[in-house]
Amino acid sequence: MFDKNTFMSLAVLLFCVLKMAGTVSAQTPKDAVKTPEVFINTGFENASPMNWEADSAGRIILSLVYDHERFSQNRANNHWHFKVEAPVGKEVTLILQNFDNIWNNTHASPISKQSPAVISFDGKTWESRPTEYLADNRMLIRLKMTAPSAFIASVEPYRISDLDKFLAKIKTNKLVTITPIGKTSEGRSLEIIKIGNEKAPKKIFLRGRAHAFEAGGNWTIEGFVNRLLQDDAQSKLYLKRFCVYILPMANKDGVARGKTRFNANGYDLNRKWDKPADSLIAPENYYLEKWLHKMVAANKKPDLALDIHNDPGGNLHVSRPDGDITAYLANMAKLDSLLRKYTWFTEGSTKPGFRNPGTLGEGFMERFGVEAAVYELNYEWVAGLKKAPLAEDWLSLGGKLPDVFYHYFDK
Ligand SMILES: [Zn+2]
């Protein structure tokens, strides 16, 4: 009645049923997996996605997950933010890998021999620690647990919840107007913070956080706004001369998901500014452009726009689109010297010949006639302070920017 194959299938089925019922024990011994004392927690806001495991020496190997760009080979892993949970007193060795980034279609690692880590045992107070560079673009961090958990990140974090707290704090101030201009790809609100009076003779536009890991821009913007809202004689002088418009966190989706660079659709918000942005793939740029078109049409075109970023260079990226840019270059030279005079900026501007086409700096000039530049903040080392940067350094830089802009608009 049964052929041989049917009989074999029934025998296998019976074996499985008995095994599930526990009446047949497996003959192969279980793999001996030692339970590590260390747990890596990435289940919180802005934590970076990763795989991790303990090796035979008990070191924790953390494999970061690349952030990929759509329509190119580019991939990035500059953001890492995770929590180590381990017994107090334990010496933990962490090895981070997958730093083989592709940048402008060229292989490039984001880590150098002086890439620091920032560490916090309470999630509030952060300190910078040196790391060790290993072959094959890996980074080693040694840590002695002085509390049951330690947050570790590439840059002192600034999350959406930090921005929300900040907006809630300033929104009742009479000098502040917060206007929603659209939504990110995943539906998060994009807002422009206006500080001061639109009738002031000059207008400044700032954008922060086009790239998700670059928290320095948010800290700088917070320091800048705090200074403008101090309500002293000096702040009144600033706001008599200029009005400020800020898109504080362009890439909220990337920040929420702990990504490095691109928006939720793999779009680089600091590229392709030579053309109008697609409303579906890059709504973060599309709504900013829409806002800017309205400003231009209402005769409220910004006199200066800065896009604030983090990189390991720290330069002011002067735009060099085609055409006569003599007056603009003179203004950028003035901005460079004022930054050196009033802040700890010493890194200087990009040299003639340097171009980064498609950035907001170039696109604002080419398409809107707005003088613009990309301001990179070095996240590895602040030469002017001889230290690795923390939030306090960018807050203090932001607090000095009103002086820079005040004198920038001197006659
Ligand atoms: Zn950037």
Can you give the mean pLDDT? Answer: 93
Number of helices: 9
Characterize the largest beta sheet: strand count, sense, and whether it forms a barrel.
7 strands, mixed
> Based on DSSP secondary structure assignment, what is the total number of beta strands?
21
**Which strand order does the major sheet show?**
15-16-18-17-19-21-20
Write down the Rg: 26 Å
Structure keywords:
single chain, 411 residues, alpha+beta, Immunoglobulin-like, Aminopeptidase, 2 domains, seven-stranded mixed β-sheet, five-stranded antiparallel β-sheet, 9 helices, 21 strands, 28% helix, globular, binds zinc ion
Could you explain how this protein is built, in words?
This protein is an alpha+beta fold and 411 residues long. The chain folds into two domains: 39-153, Immunoglobulin-like (Sandwich), CATH 2.60.40.3120; 160-408, 3-Layer(aba) Sandwich (Aminopeptidase), CATH 3.40.630. Helix content is 28%, strand content 26%. It is built from nine helices and 21 strands. The strands form five sheets. It has a seven-stranded mixed β-sheet with strand order 15-16-18-17-19-21-20, with helices on both faces. It has a five-stranded antiparallel β-sheet with strand order 1-6-14-10-11, with no helix packed on it. Strand 8 (101-103) and strand 9 form a beta hairpin. It is globular and about 75 Å long. Residues 20-26 have low confidence and may be disordered. The structure holds zinc ion.
